Amino acid sequence: MHDHVKAMKVLAQGTVIPATPLALDAQRNFDERTQRLLMRYYLNCGVGGIATAVHSTQFSIRDPKINLFERVATVVKEEIELFEQQKEKSIVGVCGVCGPIEQALGEAELAKRLGYDAVLLSPGGLNHLSEDEMLERTRQVAAVIPVIGFYLQRAVGGRLFSYDYWQSLCEIEGVVAIKCASFNRYTTLDVAR
What we know:
single chain, alpha/beta, 5 strands, about 45% helix
């Protein structure tokens, strides 16, 4: 049985949490067997967590025509739980969450139902929202499942957030960490401070 408390202690102590690539066959269809093997490889290498539905698995799996979000998230979580049972080790399960509030809440509910410990809440595609609207989105998702905030910086399509935004984000109950793609050391310092 997965222990969320132990997993959150692993996160708080600091660990490596790679983002899963999406395993496809030669016809560009989901290759579940290879996906499971890749998860076992990461886990046997000693990672402290696995993040899925983020980075290279973030975008296409949510497309209704492809419809792989739940399937990929399920496969990854099953492999985490199998490894935990075999090795008696707690692994942090992180599921990416994207989109406006309604989509983000739906994905967060699914992640919680599957047994993930936290969600990585992407700000991608939401540059039109104010900082207050982004904070409200975070509050609503954090009421469902712990949130890892994400500083997607301008170099990779994100936006500049103020120091006050980061301070307010850190004050939200349920925000447990922040992932920072540190392309600019000065804006990264706002998060670190």
